[in-house]
Design goal:
Elements (H helix, E strand, L loop, with lengths): L17 E6 L19 E5 L17 E4 L1 H45 L6 H14 L5 E3 L2 E3 L4 H21 L5 H25 L5 E3 L1 H24 L9 H31 L1 H9 L5 H10 L1 H13 L4 E2 L4 E2 L4 E2 L7 H4 L16 H15 L6 H26 L11 E2 L2 H25 L2 H14 L17 H4 L1
Antiparallel strand pairs: 1-2, 1-3, 4-5, 4-6, 7-10, 8-9
Length: about 475
């Protein structure tokens, strides 16, 4: 088979076509003498030009010649793209909702069954829908309780599934540009937001109430961010790939610094539960046989506790009710509900020797400032300084956004304000990050850390790895026939 590329593809119906000539003669499977391959039963010659054979190609199909219009195939494939987009968007959106909602429904049904199966089944489904909506940050009313504290564990799961849905839709339509990202992310956003609106309308029954407008305003930013990220990552058009080197290193260092501080907050949360273990156990004992439900709810809110602990370490602390404050040097609390998360809240200020925790963000920033200089031997001092500033701003922004998402209301009156102040956390943390990152980066530059990094890289590149000699035939295990 002889293939010639169609160098000037034309539109459908034009003279630029691929011509397939079908001969009735037998051909050898090994091919012809002139190098063209052929089928074992018929000879097929493919030409991308109209002058490939002696006779000009005819339109349509005859006994010996079939004219294949590649432009028509491309047009047909393009016509199928909207159908593929709609089908894949529907499938991935429904699957994203199913993966998150099904475990919630199972847990709610188990709790309802253990409580004696009291109440209609519609309220059980509504309770599961309320829990699903709260994972999107939607404020809900459960009887007299107004709940707007989003469980960050459920929010992270929702974000992940939405990003996977957008990536799957982009992959299904073969998207590799910004237009495909807009199409996939936009359609999934519309479908998913419609499901959120439907759930908000259907769950407003019995003791549950949801404001439709508030539901859309709180869920839409999460859906848009998740779908845009997933589609852009799958299509390979993230701005990260086109950003300059110092910008990428600054953003990466800032994200790592914020992640390290959150890891310290998670460790502090574990220590708090361990220290106040007897109080937490007594709180769990109040619920009797339904304590597993309370324990599961506490696990869902553990990421919120990690963010609160990070704010506690940073300095501003957090509130557990109106006119309350939990800081390293000041603790003012009111009566708290019997819930394990609140039982682990410190009831007294830290000792003087433990106030060193306030300097932990500064120390972490200093460590990653040195790492930034070590990994940037190719950047000059102004660029390293700018990268340090970008890293500090990124870490402060991440910490402030998480502080905003982790707070809210868990009731009315005293419990109307829970969580850290986002502006205070971002401001105080940003100052510490800026001093630590930029200062440590410049000091490390002064001591020529970047030169040692460059020398180590040169040594690594110049090192020749000598492979071990391959085993010879004599080293092989003897065969059974040799043994006999």
């Amino acid at each position: 088979m002889e293939r010639r590329p169609n160098r000037r593809p034309g539109r459908a119906g034009s003279a630029q076509r691929d011509t397939v000539r079908i001969d009735g003669s037998q051909a050898s499977p090994k091919g012809r003498i002139d190098g063209s391959q052929a089928s074992p039963k018929r000879g097929v010659t493919v030409s991308g030009d109209a002058s490939a054979d002696a006779a000009p190609p005819q339109r349509g199909r005859t006994a010996d010649t079939e004219v294949v219009d590649t432009a028509a195939y491309a047009k047909r494939a393009k016509a199928k793209r909207p159908r593929a987009l709609l089908a894949s968007a529907l499938a991935t959106t429904v699957w994203a909702v199913t993966v998150v909602f099904t475990p919630i429904l199972v847990v709610v049904i188990l709790g309802w069954w253990q409580a004696g199966a009291e109440g209609p089944v519609s309220q059980v489904v509504a309770a599961a829908g309320i829990a699903w909506l709260s994972g999107h940050g939607v404020p809900v009313d459960i009887g007299p309780i107004h709940l707007s504290v989003a469980p960050l564990a459920l929010t992270a799961l929702v974000f992940w599934r939405l990003a996977k849905a957008a990536a799957g839709t982009t992959r299904a339509i073969g998207g590799r540009d910004a237009a495909a990202v807009r199409a996939a992310a936009g359609l999934i956003t519309i479908l998913y937001t419609g499901l959120v609106a439907g759930a908000a309308a259907l769950c407003a029954t019995g003791p549950f109430d949801v404001d439709l407008l508030q539901a859309l305003l709180h869920a839409a930013p999460l859906v848009i961010a998740a779908t845009a990220f997933g589609a852009a990552r799958e299509a390979g058009v993230l701005p990260w790939d086109t950003a300059s080197v110092w910008m990428r290193r600054g953003l990466r260092t800032g994200m790592i610094t914020a992640g390290a501080l959150l890891a310290c907050g998670a460790a502090a949360t574990g220590v708090a539960f361990a220290v106040r273990g007897p109080v937490v156990a007594d709180t769990m004992a109040l619920y009797g046989s339904e304590s597993w439900i309370v324990a599961l709810l506490s696990l869902v809110y553990l990421p919120n506790c990690a963010v609160w602990a990070a704010a506690y370490i940073t300095g501003p602390g957090f509130a557990v009710g109106a006119d309350t404050a939990v800081q390293t040097s000041l603790v003012e609390l009111g009566p708290l509900p019997a819930f394990p998360v609140f039982a682990a809240v410190p009831s007294a200020p830290l000792p003087e020797y433990a106030t060193i925790l306030i300097g932990l963000p500064l120390m972490l920033a200093a460590v990653f400032g040195v790492v930034l200089t070590y990994r940037s031997p190719d950047l000059r001092v102004p660029r390293v300084t700018t990268a340090g500033i970008v890293a500090a701003a990124t870490a402060a922004l991440v910490l402030g956004v998480l502080a905003y998402l982790s707070g809210g209301a868990a009731g009315t009156g005293l419990m109307a304000d829970i969580g850290p102040d986002p502006l205070a956390v971002a401001g105080v943390g940003g100052v510490q990050f800026l001093i630590g990152l930029v200062g440590a980066a410049l000091v490390a530059r002064l001591f020529a850390v970047h030169r040692r990094a460059a020398e180590a890289e040169l040594v690594r590149r110049d090192t020749v790895v000598i492979p071990e000699p391959a085993p010879s035939r004599d080293d092989a295990l003897p065969y059974s026939r040799d043994l006999t």
